[in-house]
Amino acid sequence: MQLNSYIDHTILKPTTLISDIEKVGAEARQYGFASACVPPPFVKKTKELLQGSSVKTCTVIGFPFGYSAIEAKLAEVLLAIVDGADELDIVINLIALKNNDWQYLANEANHLIPIIKEKGKTVKVIIESGVLTDDEIIKCCELYGPAGIDYLKTSTGYAEKGASVHAVELFKKHLPQHTGIKASGGIRDYAFAKQLVEAGATRLGCSASVAIIEGGKGEGNY
């Protein structure tokens, strides 16, 4: 299985250096990853590094906890678009979810998603599935799937539990057929990445992307 085209090559640590971004950009070009996912301050630089390639520039909104105000997330969205982001991964307000305030979540989605789509950008919504019940995951599928998102994403990688085959299978069962599934968080080897794709993931968020691809070569893939 050729996984390179599934991968968002990711670096989101708070101590990210320009040299880290240059390395990620070079690796994303070399391996033909779907995108390079970087902190918002590095969107412009990443866009420059990837110019002339098919690799998209991806960034995060409301990351990693999701509880910033809608107005703050909106400002982040607008700046990311101005800076050249092709894909935006938005963390939902988990406090609202855990307090059963689905109206807040719907309002947040209605303020952010249409603006991103109007600009022709890809929108991914992160729900942090590792800290949710199955019922909460299903409700998220029912809310965000019809809202016009491109991908529902499992995790930020900052919670105690990241991607799981079970979460991906739930997504696949309850999302509209055209909605993509991004698994992220704790994907460190080829075998697990392959399992997630076989379960229904159409994009993978990984910081160990190169090791995953090289591991696949060892199994006669890529």
From TrEMBL:
CDD domains assigned: DeoC
Membrane as UniProt keyword: no
Assigned keywords, A-Z: Cytoplasm, Lyase, Schiff base
Catalyzed reaction equations: 2-deoxy-D-ribose 5-phosphate = D-glyceraldehyde 3-phosphate + acetaldehyde
EC number: 4.1.2.4
Family annotation (Pfam families): DeoC
GO MF terms, alphabetically ordered: deoxyribose-phosphate aldolase activity
Family from the record: Belongs to the DeoC/FbaB aldolase family. DeoC type 1 subfamily.
The protein, known as: Deoxyribose-phosphate aldolase
